[in-house]
Amino acid sequence: RIKAEGRNGYRFFDVTMQQEAQKRWQLEEGLYKAVERNQLEIWIQPQVSNEYVITGAEVLLRWRHPEKGMISPMDFISVAEESGQISAIEEWVLEESLSLLSRWQATNLPSTFRHLSINISPSHFMQADFIQRMLPILERYPVPGINIEFEITENLLINNFKQAIETMQVLQEKGISFSIDDFGTGYSSLRYLNQLPINVLKIDRSFVSGIANLDDDAPIIDVILLMAKKLNLEVIAEGVETQIQHQFLAQRECSLYQGYYFSKPMHHRDFFNLLMQDNGVINTPSDYV
Ligand code: C2E
Ligand code: MG
Ligand code: MG
Ligand code: MG
Which residues contact 272 (CB under 8 A, 6 or more apart)? Predict the structure, then answer.
């Protein structure tokens, strides 16, 4: 009896595994061609102040697949990391973003827009030639007055603290700043906050979404904001979807936000239009439901 079930079980398991492996392999193969076929797109989400001024933005990658439609980075970044393609892809992201930005600067960008964040995968960041490969790109597209920030995650720091700090210091001297993305969800030693050249903590969306139900995450946000203040770090609240969440955060002296309440990520062309439209101000935030 057990044997018979086992056989069925195995068969089912095999098929699922095979389908998963095949899907992954297809993504991996497709990704190799995605850059040269112009299938990767720079999308951008505004970061705003309490006055709804767009003070900065985050670059978020999208893959427009000819058959599968738009593919989320949640579905292909890990594939890119495991297949070793992430470095080439993120070099493209940096180059494309800076090139856009320098073209935009030829117009009269609102002077309140001062900042662009780019996500860097831990496996890319820890490559021995990370600095050597990124610096020439940064030097090729000077964007005076705009601060370029690399978003890294806490997990990067677990095994590579020494190397990470060295890399960060070199880049900091070249004008790059750093933020901790998804703060509060990863490796949670507080020691690194004081030792690394970090400027910004991005409060993870999971804490912000807890605000609506007034559940246990409210005190966590209090603590993060207080700690950031003591350590002289800026805070960006991620995933703000409602006015209630915004008000809760604003009452606690949070000053920067990123979330659907203000704006979803959009194609870089739309972002540029938004920026130019009302002098870089978002006029009508509305609850995301
Ligand atoms: P992330 O860096 O934490 O970026 C924020 C994510 O939260 C984005 O998802 C954004 O669309 C989403 N988000 C922002 N506001 C809200 C909100 O109010 N509600 C909800 N439900 N979501 C919100 P997205 O664009 O799907 O990207 C997912 C993740 O993919 C990013 O999370 C980042 O970790 C990764 N990613 C994107 N582009 C890159 C890249 O160029 N390199 C690397 N290594 N990772 C990237
Ligand atoms: Mg990010
Ligand atoms: Mg995040
Ligand atoms: Mg993330």
Answer: 100, 104
